[in-house]
Specification:
- The complex is a heterodimer of chains A (150) and B (407).
- With 150 residues, chain A is of the alpha+beta class.
- Chain A has a single domain, classed as Alpha-Beta Complex (Sufe protein. Chain: A), CATH 3.90.1010.
- Chain A is built from 5 helices and 4 strands, in the order ααβββαααβ.
- A 4-stranded mixed beta sheet of chain A has the order 3-2-1-4, with helices on one face.
- Chain A is globular.
- Chain B has 407 residues and is of the alpha/beta class.
- Chain B has 2 domains: 5-27 and 299-406, Aspartate Aminotransferase, domain 1 (Alpha-Beta Complex), CATH 3.90.1150; 41-295, Aspartate Aminotransferase, domain 2 (3-Layer(aba) Sandwich).
- Chain B contains 14 helices and 17 strands.
- In chain B, the strands form 5 sheets. A 7-stranded mixed beta sheet of chain B has the order 4-10-9-8-7-5-6, with helices on both faces. Chain B has a 4-stranded antiparallel beta sheet with strand order 13-14-17-16.
- The chains are: A alpha+beta (150), B alpha/beta (407).
- Chain A binds chain B through residues 1-4, 7-8, 13, 16, 38-40, 42, 62-66, 68, 119, 121-122, 125, and chain B through 20-21, 343-347, 350-351, 354-355, 361-363, 370, 376-377, 405-406.
Chain lengths: 150, 407
């Protein structure tokens, strides 16, 4: 039997209590919103870019422990990464939260989300901020429409 | 109660199971209740012995199905104290019953500038249909405010609101999100005094409390079978006969017509003119069994049992630190809704689930009310005839465990 601690690993609880890179950014190059209308999770991701490389990233908003910790871990890992690197990392992360399998060594703290696959209703919590960040990184210029993970 | 708690629990097969290695505690009754054996047997018995279409066939099975379907209608009329079975329109549930009135009544009677009065505590099913009606007719929506965390209607504002060109007042009997019990008879009287038509959303009350439409004095009342031990997909609209007779049909199709020509048709009388297409026959039969079951226990007994559990849960939750309990200080239905400042509702519900405890977390289809309370979501425990104080004690233990875990 899987226990609740499989979902709420120590890393997740820590990032939920003390989210990193949490706050609005004064002069972002790009901003994107992620909404989960079913549970009311709502985050904004702020980016400053050097070309297609993320220089600074912060997030702001509210939601469950899984969504908040995921956004926090994500922001601490995406700084300095290019769009192609972000996409590759998201692909590994998505595989992790849907299968529970840890393929690569570069997931680092993201591997704390392996237990999410046992809780299918919570997969969208884990991926919400990623959708927003990718949306912001991919689309320069105007603020994009909010992404939703319904 | 004539039955004992043990015998009631044994009549609900679904309760006898473990979830993640723990005895199931089902506290999501405001969303849907469980079904007793007699309801399950009535539905399967119909399919095993009598299945046929109604109102058309001349053969024996069709006759039996028609009799059973219409007997369920008469039973529903008696169950809520309606004067005649012609005042009962079967619908898919509360939502469709409200949509019927919001469509047929509003289209016939409302004109631009007229007002529909609602309250801030309505379920989306008693809000969105009126928004659509307002859009179609040019009418405006106005709202009776809610006091805040106590979740009471600000009734001192009611008469002035009603006087402002309001034509119809629709409100909930019991709030699904807060457990508030509204004084429906008083609300209907005050509306009637000003010539305003009333609709009561009884989804949370009809299976939980004695209910009599003549005593309440409402014009319309809507309810669902699945929140009162019956099947999903069946419910009813009660409407005063003269009002129903004056309304145009809601849906068109078979079953509801008397005569059809290529360009126009004549329809049947009430209530059949509102029931186009093959109805949910097994649902009506299951609902009949559910009403019999509830009256066997006694709705007065159910009401006091549910309220006792609601009060007990509220009292236990008030003793916890860092917990914001919502809903009325007294006169609470069997619903306890609360917010933990340090833990998101969905984390509470996921955690509780792994302890065998079925709770609900979210906005409970009352987003405007949540906004009014400054919340995104709450955790809700809602009780019914088969729940016990021991289960509430276990629930409070789990909440304390959750607070410590996320603390």
């Amino acid at each position: 039997m899987q226990d609740i601690a499989d979902l709420y690993q120590a890393v997740i609880l820590d990032h939920n209590r003390r989210p990193r890179n949490f706050g609005e950014m004064e002069n972002p190059d790009r901003v994107a919103v992620g909404d989960n209308p079913v549970c009311g999770d709502h985050y904004t991701v702020f980016l400053q870019m050097d070309g297609d490389r993320i220089r600074e990233i912060t997030f702001h908003g509210a939601g469950c422990a899984i969504s908040k910790a995921s956004a926090s871990v994500m922001t601490s890992m995406l700084k300095g990464k290019t769009l192609a690197e972000i996409k590759a990392l998201y692909s590994d992360f998505h595989h992790l939260v849907t299968s529970g399998e840890i393929d690569e060594g570069n997931l680092s703290d993201l591997s704390a989300f392996a237990g999410v696959h046992q809780f299918p209703a919570r997969i969208k919590c884990a991926t919400l901020s990623w959708h927003a960040a990718l949306n912001a990184a991919e689309r320069p210029g105007e603020e994009p429409e909010p992404v939703t993970t319904e | 109660m004539k039955k004992t708690m043990t015998s009631i629990r044994e009549e609900f097969p679904v309760l006898d199971q473990q979830v993640y290695g723990h005895d199931l505690i089902y506290f999501d009754n405001a969303a849907t209740t469980q079904k007793p054996r007699s309801v399950i047997d009535a539905v399967s018995g119909y399919y095993e012995k009598d299945n046929s279409n109604v109102h058309r066939g001349i053969h024996a099975l069709s006759h039996r199905a028609t009799e059973a379907y219409e007997a369920a209608r008469a039973r529903a009329a008696a169950f809520i104290g309606a004067g005649s079975e012609k005042e009962i329109v079967f619908t898919r549930g509360t939502t469709e019953a409200i949509n019927l009135v919001a469509s047929s009544w509003c289209n016939r009677y409302l004109k631009p500038g007229d007002r529909i009065l609602l309250t801030e505590m309505e379920h989306h099913s008693n809000l969105v249909p009126w928004q659509l009606a307002a859009e179609r007719t040019g009418a405006e929506l106005v709202f009776v405010p809610v006091t805040g965390d106590e979740g009471l209607l600000q009734l001192d504002r009611l008469d002035a609101l009603l006087a402002g060109n309001v034509k119809l007042f629709a409100f909930t009997h019991i709030s699904n999100a807060l457990g508030t019990i509204n004084p429906v008879a008083e609300l209907c009287r005050r509306a009637r005094d000003q010539g305003v038509v009333t609709l009561v959303d009884a989804a949370q009350s009809v299976g939980h409390a004695p209910l009599d439409v003549s005593g309440i004095g409402c014009d319309f009342l809507a309810f669902s079978g699945h929140k009162m031990c019956g099947p999903t997909g069946i419910g009813a609209l009660y409407g005063r006969r003269d009002l129903l007779e004056a309304l145009p049909p809601y849906h068109g199709g078979g079953e509801m017509i008397r005569k059809v020509d290529l360009h126009r048709s004549e329809w049947k009388g009430v209530p059949h003119k509102f029931e186009a297409g093959t109805p949910h026959i097994s649902g009506a039969i299951g609902l009949h069994a559910a009403m019999d079951y509830l009256d066997e226990i006694g709705r007065k007994a159910i009401y006091s049992h549910d309220r006792e559990l609601g009060e007990y849960a509220a009292e236990r939750l008030r003793s916890l630190r860092n917990l914001r309990l919502l809903g009325p200080p007294a006169e609470r239905a069997g619903i306890a809704s609360f917010h933990l400042p340090n833990v998101h509702a969905h984390d509470v519900v996921s955690f509780a689930d792994r302890r065998g405890l079925a709770l609900r977390g979210g906005h409970h289809c009352t987003q405007p009310l949540m906004k009014r309370l400054g919340l995104e979501s709450t955790v809700r425990a809602s009780f019914y005839i088969y729940n016990t104080k021991e289960e509430i004690d276990r629930f409070v233990e789990v909440i304390e465990e959750i607070q410590a875990f996320f603390g």
